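chain below, 363 aa
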Amino acid sequence: MISLILFLSTTVFFSIAILVLVVPLILARGIIFPNKDIIFLKREIFAYLIMFLSAIFVTYLNMFYGAVVPNVQESSILGNIPYIILLPVAFLIGKYLTFKDLKFIQYFILIEIVVGCVEYYYGVPTFFENNTPIAELADTDILYQKRVFGFSSNSSNLAAKIIYFAIITMMQVKIEKRINKESMFFILFIIFGLFITFNRTAIISIVLSLLFLFGISLRGVFLISIPFLGGIVYKWDSIFEQLTRGRGTIDLSGRDQIFSFFYNFWSENLLFGNFGTKLWWNNVGYVWHAHNSYLEFLASNGILFTLLFLFAFLLLFRRGLSIVIPILIFSLSQYGFLWGLSFYDVIFSAIIYNYIRFLEVDK
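prediction:
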């Protein structure tokens, strides 16, 4: 039930507000089925204390001074509340999720990838609610323009879930120290998912992470690269066309302008940023987040609270950060985590906590 609610919060069928149901369910499960593996170390308590005290201070400043740029996302229920206060809540929820919960998440995302494949087959981005610019509905051979949404509101959300799906699969392989039939099955659908969403950042994130996580030697990388490089050279024109979205030049999808806005805002509001209110760029009626989790956090909260949060974050997660390298890379040009109370932050935390438990057992 908990995994289902988390997943449904990412779909077009439900509001993210349903995540409030997760807290009482986690508490109830903890009382009825106590988990002795869940313990809090002193450094964890200290880290959460830093996060909550920082969040309280940001909230106080926000109430006293107000945001530099007020919330422009009218659909955001908690848009005016400093979202930094919701992040430790999301991380705490993740601590109480088990590997079994993550397995359920895997299968829910798998179902969504299957739906995405059917959407791709029928040449439509979605069978459900659609608020997408018409450019994404074009009849073209450019894969970027044929991206599908699955149950999500856009292809980027589906791509982010595929990244988490891939991370859980990688963790499963590392825990079992082998690739079994189930893992092979998941890997096949990860490839399908990357194809139908054609998110360039997601593809790069997963490829780089595989090389790092599974310790492929330089010799191995060289041997593996030979057939791929041969294929790239042979099909270079076609590949280049796909990567540049048919424009014949490297395209950043407007990120240069977006990054510039958020960086300039932060440089002008160095210490406290937007006083904890999530910053959005309203550009001629189009509302954008930073497309970079780190820049978004910095611009919204300023350098002081970013450094405090980073210190606490590393106290909590530094031992398990290697397993989430795909999302850390993905978040350089997408918004992969640090949303607040969200599916992504809960699952980010749950993956790390479960991986740390595995490392403790495997000692």
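Confidence is low (pLDDT under 50) at residues 133-141, 217-225, 231-243. The chain is about 60% helix and 0% strand.
thats it, cya
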